[in-house]
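step 4 of 6: structure.
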Amino acid sequence: MASTAYFAASMVLVLIGLYALLTSRNMLRAVIGLEVITSAVNLNILAMGSSGGTVDPLAQSMAFTSIVIGAAVAALALSLVIYAYRHYGSIDLRRLRRLRW
Amino acid sequence: MVNDQAWMVLTPLATLLGAAMLTPIVASAARRARPGGGKAVDVFAVLGFTVTLYTLYRLYLRVYYSGPVSVALDPYLPVNGGVELHVDMLSVYMAMIFCGIGLLASIYSVRYMEGDTGHEYYYLLLLTLVAGMVGVAFAGDFFNLFVSWELMCISSYALVSFRKYRWEPIEAGFKYLMMSSLGSLTILYGISLLYGLTGTVNFRLIRVGLDSIAEAGVPSPLYILVALIIVGFGVTASMVPFHTWLPDAHPAAPSPISAMLSGVVIKTGVYGLGRSLFTLFNPVAFDYGTAILIFAALTMTVANFVALLQRDIKRLLAYSSIANIGYITAGLGIAAYALSHYYPVDPGLALKVALLGASGALFHIFNHAVGKGFLFLCSGCFVHETGTRDISQLEGVGRRMFLTGTSFTLGLFSLAGVPPLSGFWSKLFIILAGLSIAGDTALYTITAILIFNSVLSAAYYLWLMQRIMLRKPSGLAAEAVEAPGAMVIPVIILAAVSLLVGLAPGGMITLMEYVSKALMGGW
């Protein structure tokens, strides 16, 4: 089964993205981690929709929609990174810890 | 294939999205007519919400008299995956709450946002936010649900960080964006696994597939799907331990948006949780009630204890929102628990308890949306007049702003569950549901925790009331005057609704019967 391999690959990608999101101290790296997870989930949708060489059109349209949504989220996140840089002069996540309790 | 039914269902969504598209055009036209553009955009957005509310009322009558309305979207007919919009009583009820609070928030924004620029973007985002929430309520399959969900989420990220020239909204917005996107991706992962398991995304067809799988006992890997759905929707519904973004994001947003987020957006998470769990996974076969009850107990207790520490009025209200999410999920959890544990033994009793718990939870969604909505609007009035969010500096401001202060007191009492205000009835329903099965330790425990938390929250509500209303005004608060009329009117409307529903809950309770049956009966 080819789709099993894709399913396993998407799980590995999710773990890589989570690692990037949780351990990075740089805002840009965190955004990239989020995008890696998005791609992994898209891959999983396609893997689930494929059966013996053909892919269900529903899975394809879901993956396309998800790609567009991921792009929108990334654009918004990057604009927030720019504004944070204008405020703090750095994009270190540790500087953004003023909100605690 | 635009017949009468499709027209009924698509009108509210089309109105909201169309108004959102037209907002920038209206703004530029108004700027040509006179410098600055006046209040054209604001009035246009209010009109859009009003028209939507009217179309939703028409749809409600249709659903009430002739059953659920369902519209299949053409390229994917039910045989091919079944992408459809499905509207039953629960969907219409939720959509009307969303749109009503949206209308009042937009009326309030007319005066509140005067000092800000970029009004057309603000109203565009507010309209798309409500459009996304109405889409979530109308979705009959995961494809529509996910697209509407993300429309709602992206709008709310942008609205939280709307005042981008200050540090707090930026920081809170980034935190919110990261955590909430991760939650959405968790949901999407769960959806893709469900799709791989059953070959469809339609709720009804997934239910059929899962029932045939679970006939000979539930295989335990299926609980991974339940866990993914609970965690994913739990991030947006802000259950503890996924709540950490909420106390930052809600105070950082402008006050009408805080009212929207706390009153309505987190309820979308609860709606998604309830709808997907009760519709997809037969609660008699799957035992997820216990898990929801554990989360609910955690949510209530942690949120109430942390709320006691707060010195910032909007932050305190945000924590109290989390506590109320705990009560709502407790109602849903009691329903699921009763069905899975007692349905084989005594079907009549189990169904009775489940309907009671679910109607309590759904009724509390309404009460909390109204109550927390106008508490945030009131605190917005205070902040607008005094320029501070610190409770110690706001002491006695309620005496200077009489109408707002009185409404604020009403809202606090309603959420504390003082009879005869509306918050009392829904809590009573949930507590009665928890007590109606004799000798069940789990249900007794959750009811005891709920009562304890009600008392605890009443303590800090009364403390807040005493500080705001009874102290002598000093410093900043002494110079406050009553907020402008356009800001007080929505507050008064919501206070009146809360009082009326509390004094005459009969009609609402009858409606809850239909709504909770729509949640339980699947389709």
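step 5 of 6: annotate
 - The helical segments of chain A are 2-23, 27-49, 57-88.
 - The radius of gyration of chain A is 17 Å.
step 6 of 6: archive
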